[in-house]
Amino acid sequence: MDYPLTVDIAFLLLAILAVVSGWRVFCTDSMVRASFFLLVSFIAVGVIMILLAAEYLGVAMFFMMAVEMMVMATFMVMFMMNPAGLNPMMMVHQHKFSIAAGVVIFVLLAGVALLAEFPTNPLPADLDPVTSLGNELLGDSMLIFESAGIVLLTTMIGVVVLSSHRGRYGGAHEGSMPPGLVPGGDPAGMPKEDEEEGGGHHHCH
Amino acid sequence: MTLVTLLLLAAALIGIGFYGALSQQSFVMLMMGLELILNGVMLAAVAFWALSGAGAPEGQLLTIVVMAVMAIEMAMGFALVVAVFRTKQADVTEGITELKH
């Protein structure tokens, strides 16, 4: 499929933008700036998707990544040292190995892209990508789509469980202990310690 | 804009993401590397859909699934960062070496 020259130029610029901003993510001093570089990289890829006629996916990418990177920047400010990039920062380990691994992955994938023979089947002229995606999501592939929704719900529950710092009866890392029925009293619903030691006849372990 | 150039761009994004995920000490920066990998995967899926798959709707569906994976990875990653920070006061991967055993 032949694209007009303007599309090719736009693709070239966006590709350079995506790669350069993706690389800058890991060598900027400020962690907040790093998350915005990642956002730029995602938006460039989203525009390329729109150039490829996948309008819904490209725009969904914008919305999702805008929100996601805001959350990421918030976490950067909350947790990380040096969020504003006031000091030089290079927090890496196994640096040479990582560079080598990244280059090897790129060379392998680029080799596949250059050497493999892929069929050339461009989009049909009368295809409406959004309609076809909608028909697929609520038609043949509805089970997959719904499964993704269920997995997202499970994730929400898991996230609340993991990040909640207290259980029902106190700190999650201290073990559960129900509160007393009167202020400062013994834990409710549990036999007293001496009763448990003395009367071992009515319960078995 | 051909399939080969699109796949090369996807390969570059995946390579950079791999480097980031392996090299960064901070948990959140590590997750950024994983996000870049998924970014490249989505681009490759859309490129195959548009130029090699004759617009089969499953190609777009695959991209949607990868997007859901990305959201799950973000949410679970941040929850784990919060949980680890709360118990160990650690925000770099070196802080939790005891988990090895």
Automatic annotation (TrEMBL), chain A:
The chain crosses the membrane at residues 6-27, 34-54, 60-85, 97-116, 142-162. Residues 171-205 are annotated as: Disordered. The keyword Disulfide bond does not apply. InterPro entries: NADH_UbQ/plastoQ_OxRdtase_su6, Nuo/plastoQ_OxRdtase_6_NuoJ. Pfam families: Oxidored_q3 (PF00499). It comes from the Bacteria. Its main location: membrane. It is found in: Cell membrane. Its EC number is 7.1.1.-. GO terms for molecular function: oxidoreductase activity. It is a multi-pass membrane protein. Keywords: Cell membrane, Membrane, NAD, Oxidoreductase, Quinone, Transmembrane, Transmembrane helix. Gene3D superfamilies: NADH-ubiquinone/plastoquinone oxidoreductase chain 6, subunit NuoJ (1.20.120.1200). The keyword Transmembrane applies. It catalyses: a quinone + NADH + 5 H(+)(in) = a quinol + NAD(+) + 4 H(+)(out). Composed of 13 different subunits. Subunits NuoA, H, J, K, L, M, N constitute the membrane sector of the complex. NDH-1 shuttles electrons from NADH, via FMN and iron-sulfur (Fe-S) centers, to quinones in the respiratory chain. Couples the redox reaction to proton translocation (for every two electrons transferred, four hydrogen ions are translocated across the cytoplasmic membrane), and thus conserves the redox energy in a proton gradient. Belongs to the complex I subunit 6 family. This is NADH-quinone oxidoreductase subunit J.
From TrEMBL, chain B:
It comes from Halomonas gemina. It is an enzyme of class 7 (translocase). The chain crosses the membrane at residues 33-54, 61-85. NDH-1 is composed of 14 different subunits. Subunits NuoA, H, J, K, L, M, N constitute the membrane sector of the complex. The keyword Cytoplasm does not apply. Its EC number is 7.1.1.-. Its main location: membrane. Keywords: Cell membrane, Membrane, NAD, Oxidoreductase, Quinone, Translocase, Transmembrane, Transmembrane helix, Transport, Ubiquinone. It comes from the Bacteria. The keyword Transmembrane applies. One of its GO terms (molecular function) is oxidoreductase activity. Belongs to the complex I subunit 4L family. It is found in: Cell membrane; Membrane. It catalyses: a quinone + NADH + 5 H(+)(in) = a quinol + NAD(+) + 4 H(+)(out). It is a multi-pass membrane protein. NDH-1 shuttles electrons from NADH, via FMN and iron-sulfur (Fe-S) centers, to quinones in the respiratory chain. The immediate electron acceptor for the enzyme in this species is believed to be ubiquinone. Couples the redox reaction to proton translocation (for every two electrons transferred, four hydrogen ions are translocated across the cytoplasmic membrane), and thus conserves the redox energy in a proton gradient. This is NADH-quinone oxidoreductase subunit K.
